[in-house]
Design brief:
By secondary structure, the chain is an alpha+beta fold. It has two helices and five strands, in the order ααβββββ.
Length: 160
């Protein structure tokens, strides 16, 4: 134990400094980890939407059950990528021809349409996200991801 020139111990002052700095340091570390989870989740949601749009290109557009197969494949791909995240697992309910505007929170949308003679496949995704183990961090707006794939209708070659 260190003593000053007057013989007084500095042990109490060290404890007080530690007690003042530790909560601020822990708050900083928890904030960095929590928002890191949010940023990583955003990247995975975006990747899930893009991969879901890409998986639809494998389906034959001339098949009778094209929309049903495309919807099933998108739902399987979304479930695969979002399985371990602290987000809801929205599913595509129906296939529409054209997407406009943002998809509502906690939902997914699959749009298959034509643009300049090409088939355009778009997946919009907005799962509900909850911060794990924290109740004091303000709520974020919906985390959104959009995947888009353009496929030539004549030879099936893909370009993005």
């Amino acid at each position: 134990m260190k003593k000053t020139a007057s013989g007084v111990s500095q042990y109490g002052a060290t404890l007080i400094e530690f007690a003042l700095v530790l909560p601020l340091f822990l708050l900083l570390v928890i904030g960095i980890l929590t928002y890191g989870i949010a940023f990583a989740t955003q990247q995975i949601v975006q990747h899930a939407a893009q991969r879901s749009a890409e998986v639809v290109t494998r389906v034959d557009p001339l098949a009778d059950d094209y929309n049903d197969v495309a919807r099933r494949l998108v739902n399987e791909e979304l479930a695969y990528w979002l399985d371990f995240l602290p987000v809801s697992k929205p599913e595509v309910e129906e296939v529409s021809g054209f997407c406009s505007g943002n998809v509502p929170a906690d939902s997914a949308r699959l749009c298959i349409g034509k643009e300049s003679g090409r088939r355009v496949i778009r997946v919009d995704l907005a799962p509900a996200f909850e911060f794990p183990l924290t109740g004091y961090i303000s709520e974020l707006e919906a985390i959104r991801g959009t995947g888009r794939n353009v496929v030539a209708t004549d030879d099936g070659s893909a370009s993005s």
